[in-house]
Design a protein that fits this description.
This protein is an all-alpha fold and about 290 residues long. Helix content is about 75%, strand content about 0%. The protein has 14 helices and no strands. It has helices at about 5-15, 20-25, 30-50, 55-65, 70-90, 95-100, 105-115, 125-140, 155-175, 185-205, 210-240, 240-250, 250-260, 270-290. The chain is globular.
Amino acid sequence: MASSSATLVGCGAILLWSLLALFTAASGTVPPFQLAAMTFALGGLVGCASWLARRGGVAAGLAALRQPWPVWALGVGGLFGYHALYFAALRLAPPAEAGLINYLWPLLIVLFSARLPGAGGLRPGHLVGALLGLAGVVVLFLGRGAFRFDDAALPGYAASLAAAFVWAGYSVLSRRVGTVPTDAVAGFCLATAALSLACHRVWETTTWPEGALQWAAVVALGLGPVGAAFYLWDIGCKRGDIRLLGVAAYAAPVLSTLILVASGYAAATPVLGIACALIVAGALIALRASRGVG
């Protein structure tokens, strides 16, 4: 697969993640770890089901799971580690502040990717694009209300920052194990589901979705933002322009807000337009840098 095609595939993950807030809101009051267990199980099964439609079938898919323990540590540590830390951050700190800190991960991807073999260092355009994207997210979050950083919430802020480093590290290090087939992500998802279930049994009270709409939202999460998205992201990180993907990832919260507005879960504001302009400008600058212009 050409780099440009793989980058577009990776952007598909960003589009799916923009639906995360909508589907999560529509899923009712299912506790976070329970929801993660349900949706990652679906996401893993989706990957396993895809083996049936491709050359080699189930045998090839199972062969993809036979990886050294460092690969499993990277995959499960990235998927489960990120979500566990982010859930902890949401419990220990105000959601808006935790979310803003967490969105440092696209910038970290751009910075970390400069150390990859053959990356040729960090182009100024990539850094400028990432900073503009971050500025767009800051504007978007500020538009939702005043921030109150509280010393008592420092553990939550630390967990959110750690989650950003974990996801950025997972994304960039995936390129170093580029020979590992994307089929292995199915195993990472199933392992994450099992660990999430264990956490749910320890810390949460089971609450099932109510009605067909909430169940449909859970299934949609498992098929899309917590399913197919991780396979698409794996392809993009391993074979595409990871620096451009890092900048493009800043579009996810803006697209998510636009979707919430369109679906009636949020109201449109002028701040949304400013955030869109900053993120689009950042993406265009990063694209020019990827083409060797800046």
